[in-house]
């Protein structure tokens, strides 16, 4: 397979000014006429035109209306004898493709009788021959022609300029629609949709007075699940104008939902295509988490309209230019919609949890790569948590270094300089720095940009020293970063570390660094640039308790020897909610690691009274929000615990964490009863932070009460829980109750699952939850794998539907470590079979699954050897896709 390298970038040899596409849509054989105006790029030596193609049938090529010679180089169409000089010429290419046979869901495909496209990253070449690269931006005119009864709705990017019945013989019952996109765009943003759909519509007026039509298209029968997506879209339009001064630049903005989609959603210009999971929701079918995800994904795709579409990427190595920035923007959007600082903090904690449980492992594993990668074989493999979530943290640090207003100035300059262009991550950081010439970012820009070029999670070591005699407190910070594949040595990063100091009463101290004349604030941003640096605060009357990396001000691992007493103090008092939560996590982690590392059988009581009392205090705290309490009382995930260990025994980690949960359930029994009673009733369902938090805490309490009942033999709480499955008036409460029964392994779980299935057998997204819950259930004597095999044979299971495949196979292989890592290696054999099977029809989904064993080198025996063998088995298949081949090759390296 060919390795593509960032350093090999060269500008395109031709520019495409206009593209006119005419589609005759037919599932078996769609005909595509592509008429382009091109011209040679004067900055590049004269050469042949090489057009990308994939799985196309070529019928005709005309240059300026005349037949011309061409040749094929693999799947690339090569035109050598084109008009000389720099005058534009017309190229007409006629091809056909077979959308109903397209199981990869890239290019033009059919889902439940409706045509959809997915062109990012390199799917446009499966529709027509083209310069399929993001720096070629053209104006598009698109005509769709199709049977009117089967495809009454015909959509593409931009504005509808003409539509009607097709005249003439052979066109009976057929109609057309012509769309013109007023904005130039790269081909990865092209989209069409044709089918029998209905739309929720809303008109909105922008600050400028311009009116826009917003539409959410779904299948008939799903209209009652579109209100939240529409509201989220309206909020997004308002927010981007208010926070960044970025208006909607189209008369019409459309979202269309499909149940067959490889990822979450796609930001095609003016015609976003979404996985149904991120559009459809009502209180009966969707959980609070679904509602929150819809809000952020709708926001994310909408915000791409400026960060990605108006200013796009020069090449795919710059993917984080749009993805990191747009994740940052969607995170800020969701935070800005929160009414209270506490709700904002909850969102920040949730985002950091994703980063630490998914991105940190990626950064320490075989697929580790910089936010701006240097090479790839298959670009689809680089839509990663590093490019997205770590990329967002890199943007966040820029905002931290220049301040919120400074960041806005930087964004303004970025659009002033680059609107309509295809640019690089360097261009972005340069704009933020240039708009803030006196900032640390501007001063340190070349060093700061190591965040884009160096892979790996930096480790910051912090140690404090208090000198009572001088009333000074010195905090010493040092940094290091482990080697990653291809990068043995790392240069120091620029690391913004937000710090506070608490007194014995838990109050924040006013902070004054030596040399300053007055104290300034209670949280200080220390900008670490050297391998080590000490910061001395003066006027510190008594030994303080440090609160380091407040708000998770940088994506680093923080090493700090903190006593239990200090952590308990922070958990009780820290004014920074992130570090307050973090203190609880550290206390829990410390106990988990001690129990995992202990000699002999796992301890039966890893939790001590000090910890349990602290948890009780948080749970009963009169002033803390329910959402925050739920986060504190949730123990660190098994995958997060695994990352702290050099050698991982998934069974031992699971056993210890389960023992801790059981202890927490039993010891706080009365408190859980109290929490349940206090939070179970929330009136009419509304997906907003306060009642969402209350439902989350009630759900946690119910889970704990079912666990406690398992130990005590009590049947009352499982009975009440089953009742809740039956009579809950919203999906969050119903599903939490169902999970409580399944997770505690109560006998009622079987009936509850059957009842739930009967109730929701026609709701695909709810069935996904039903499948996922069972595939992710705690293993009891190896029972999950046989259950998973049964689920695959269930009449509602469809392997080719990515959501359904993920709900069973990914829930088992990626999210259920103790059931997956079996001593008999049967989990790994199952995994390799599924990777190979899925790879034959959808390489993108297969290669995501292929990553389930990324961290195999850390596993204890016998898992390690068995995992290696399973990966080698996949790698041994000669006709693997590039996607899977790249993942397993890196894994075995
Ligand atoms: N920009 C979108 C990426 C995407 C995608 C990439 C490869 C294959 C299928 C895909 N569907 C969507 C999504 C986003 O980040 O907004
Ligand atoms: Zn995105």
From TrEMBL:
Transmembrane segments: none annotated. It comes from the Bacteria. It is an enzyme of class 3 (hydrolase). It catalyses: Release of an N-terminal amino acid, Xaa-|-Yaa- from a peptide, amide or arylamide. Xaa is preferably Ala, but may be most amino acids including Pro (slow action). When a terminal hydrophobic residue is followed by a prolyl residue, the two may be released as an intact Xaa-Pro dipeptide. The keyword Zinc applies. InterPro entries: Aminopeptidase_N-like_N, Aminopeptidase_N-like_N_sf, PepN_Ig-like_sf, Peptidase_M1, Peptidase_M1_dom, Peptidase_M1_pepN, Peptidase_M1_pepN_C, Peptidase_M1_pepN_C_sf. Residues 229-444 form the Peptidase M1 membrane alanine aminopeptidase domain. Its EC number is 3.4.11.2. Gene3D superfamilies: 2.60.40.1840, 3.30.2010.30, Neutral Protease Domain 2, Peptidase M1, alanyl aminopeptidase, C-terminal domain, tricorn interacting facor f3 domain. Keywords: Aminopeptidase, Hydrolase, Metal-binding, Metalloprotease, Protease, Zinc. Its cofactor is Zn(2+). Residues 564-893 form the Peptidase M1 alanyl aminopeptidase C-terminal domain. CDD domains: M1_APN (cd09600). NCBIfam families: pepN_proteo (TIGR02414). Belongs to the peptidase M1 family. This is Aminopeptidase N. It comes from Hydrogenophaga electricum. The lineage of its organism: Bacteria, Pseudomonadati, Pseudomonadota, Betaproteobacteria, Burkholderiales. The gene is pepN.
């Amino acid at each position: 397979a060919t390795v593509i390298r960032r350093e090999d970038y060269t500008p395109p040899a031709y520019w495409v000014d206009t593209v006119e596409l005419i589609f005759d849509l037919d599932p078996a054989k769609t005909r595509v006429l592509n008429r382009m105006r091109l011209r040679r790029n004067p900055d590049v030596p004269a050469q042949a035109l090489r057009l990308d193609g994939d799985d196309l049938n070529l019928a005709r090529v005309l240059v300026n209306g005349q037949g011309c010679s061409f040749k094929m180089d693999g799947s690339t169409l090569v035109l050598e004898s084109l008009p000389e000089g720099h005058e534009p010429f017309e190229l007409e290419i006629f091809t056909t493709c077979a959308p109903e046979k397209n199981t990869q869901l890239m290019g033009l495909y059919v889902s439940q009788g409706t045509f959809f496209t997915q062109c990012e990253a390199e799917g446009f070449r499966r529709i027509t021959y083209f310069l399929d690269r993001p720096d070629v931006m053209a104006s598009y005119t698109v005509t769709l022609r199709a049977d009117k009864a089967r495809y009454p709705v015909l959509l593409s990017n931009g504005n509808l300029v003409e539509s009607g019945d097709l005249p003439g013989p052979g066109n009976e019952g057929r109609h057309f629609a012509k769309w013109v996109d007023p904005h130039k765009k790269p081909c990865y943003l092209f989209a069409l949709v044709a089918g029998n759909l209905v739309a929720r519509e809303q008109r909105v007026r922008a600050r400028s007075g311009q009116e826009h039509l917003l539409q959410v298209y779904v299948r008939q029968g799903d209209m009652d699940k579109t209100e939240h997506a529409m509201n989220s879209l309206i909020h997004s339009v308002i927010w981007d104008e208010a926070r960044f001064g970025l208006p909607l630049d189209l008369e019409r903005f459309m979202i269309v939902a499909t149940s067959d989609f490889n990822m979450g959603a796609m930001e095609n210009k003016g015609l976003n295509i979404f996985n149904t999971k991120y559009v459809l929701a009502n209180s009966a079918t969707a959980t609070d988490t679904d509602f929150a995800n819809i809000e952020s994904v709708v926001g994310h795709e909408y915000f791409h309209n400026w960060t990605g579409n108006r200013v796009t990427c020069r090449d795919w190595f710059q993917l984080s230019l749009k993805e990191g920035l747009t994740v940052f923007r969607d995170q800020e959007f969701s935070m800005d919609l929160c009414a209270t600082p506490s709700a904002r903090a909850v969102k920040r904690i949730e985002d950091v949890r994703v980063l630490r449980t998914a991105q940190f492992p990626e950064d320490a594993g075989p697929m580790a790569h910089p936010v701006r990668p240097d090479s790839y074989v298959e670009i689809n493999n680089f839509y990663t948590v590093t490019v997205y979530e770590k990329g967002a943290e890199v943007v966040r640090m820029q905002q931290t270094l220049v301040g919120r207003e400074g960041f806005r100035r930087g964004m303004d300059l970025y659009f002033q300089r680059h609107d309509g262009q295809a640019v690089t991550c360097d261009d972005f950081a340069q704009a933020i720095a240039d708009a803030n010439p006196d900032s640390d970012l501007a001063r340190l820009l070349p060093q700061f940009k190591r965040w884009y070029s160096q892979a790996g999670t930096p480790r910051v070591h912090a140690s404090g020293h208090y000198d009572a005699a001088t009333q000074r407190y010195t905090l010493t910070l040092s940094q290091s970063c482990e080697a990653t594949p291809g990068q043995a040595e790392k240069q120091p990063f620029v690391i913004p570390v937000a710090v506070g100091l608490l007194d014995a009463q838990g109050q924040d101290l006013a902070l004054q660094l030596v040399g300053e004349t007055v104290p300034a604030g209670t949280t200080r941003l220390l900008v670490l640039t050297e391998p080590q640096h000490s910061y001395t605060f003066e006027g510190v009357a008594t030994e303080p308790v440090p609160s380091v990396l407040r708000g998770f001000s940088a994506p680093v691992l923080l090493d700090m020897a903190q006593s239990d007493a200090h952590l308990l103090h922070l958990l009780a008092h820290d004014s920074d909610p992130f570090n307050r939560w973090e203190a609880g996590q550290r206390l829990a982690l410390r106990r988990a690691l001690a129990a995992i590392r202990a000699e002999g059988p796992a301890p039966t009581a890893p939790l001590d009274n000090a910890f349990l009392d602290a948890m009780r205090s948080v749970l009963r705290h009169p002033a803390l929000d329910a959402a925050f309490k739920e986060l504190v009382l949730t123990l660190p995930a098994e995958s997060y615990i695994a990352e702290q260990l050099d050698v991982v025994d998934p069974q031992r980690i699971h056993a210890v964490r389960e023992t801790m949960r059981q202890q927490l359930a039993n010891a706080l029994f009365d408190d859980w009863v109290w929490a349940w009673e206090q939070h179970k009733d929330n009136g009419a369902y509304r997906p907003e932070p306060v009642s969402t938090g209350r439902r989350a805490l009630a759900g946690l309490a119910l889970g704990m009460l079912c666990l406690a009942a398992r130990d005590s033999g009590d049947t009352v709480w499982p009975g009440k829980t089953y009742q809740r499955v039956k009579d809950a008036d919203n999906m969050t409460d119903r599903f939490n109750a169902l999970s409580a029964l399944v997770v505690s392994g109560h006998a009622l779980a079987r009936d509850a699952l059957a009842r739930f299935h009967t109730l929701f057998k026609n709701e695909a997204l709810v069935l996904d939850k039903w499948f996922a819950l069972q595939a992710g259930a705690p293993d009891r004597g190896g029972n999950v794998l046989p259950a998973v095999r049964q689920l695959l044979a269930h009449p509602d299971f469809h392997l080719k539907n990515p959501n359904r495949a993920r709900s069973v196979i990914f829930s088992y292989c990626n999210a259920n470590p103790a059931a997956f890592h079996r001593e008999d290696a049967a989990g790994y054999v199952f995994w390799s079979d599924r990777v190979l099977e899925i790879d034959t029809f959808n390489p993108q989904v297969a290669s995501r699954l292929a990553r389930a064993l990324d961290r195999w080198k850390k596993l204890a025996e016998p898992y390690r050897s068995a995992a290696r063998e399973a990966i080698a088995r996949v790698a041994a298949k000669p006709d693997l896709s590039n996607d899977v081949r790249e993942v397993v090759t890196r894994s075995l390296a």
